[in-house]
Specification:
The chain has about 100 residues and is an all-beta fold. It has one domain. It contains no helices and eight strands. It has a six-stranded mixed β-sheet with strand order 7-6-3-1-2-8, with no helix packed on it. It has a two-stranded antiparallel sheet with strand order 4-5. Strand 1 and strand 2 form a beta hairpin. It is globular, with a radius of gyration of 17 Å. The relative contact order is 0.25.
Length: about 100
Amino acid sequence: MNTYKAYKTKDNKLTLDPKKGEYYENLLVAGVTPYEWIEYVDLKGNEFTFRTLFFVHFNGKDCIPYKYYKYYRVNQNYEKGKLPPSFQWFEVRDIEDD
């Protein structure tokens, strides 16, 4: 799981730049790949992992397979067994990610 340190600026905005604020929390990072960049999906995986493999075009900035990133923070009120697993994280929309 990839995480980034988020910093809170003086005007209460989140940023990934440590020079602009004080450490606030870690955020989960998820790259978003558009459907049209997916060349092939192998549902069976390979002989090493047996996990689904995605073959994609690296059309993103700096030749990465993601068009953009989404950032998520931990839901402090999440209770395992009482809420669906998808409620464990929620999206952060107000972040500067230059």
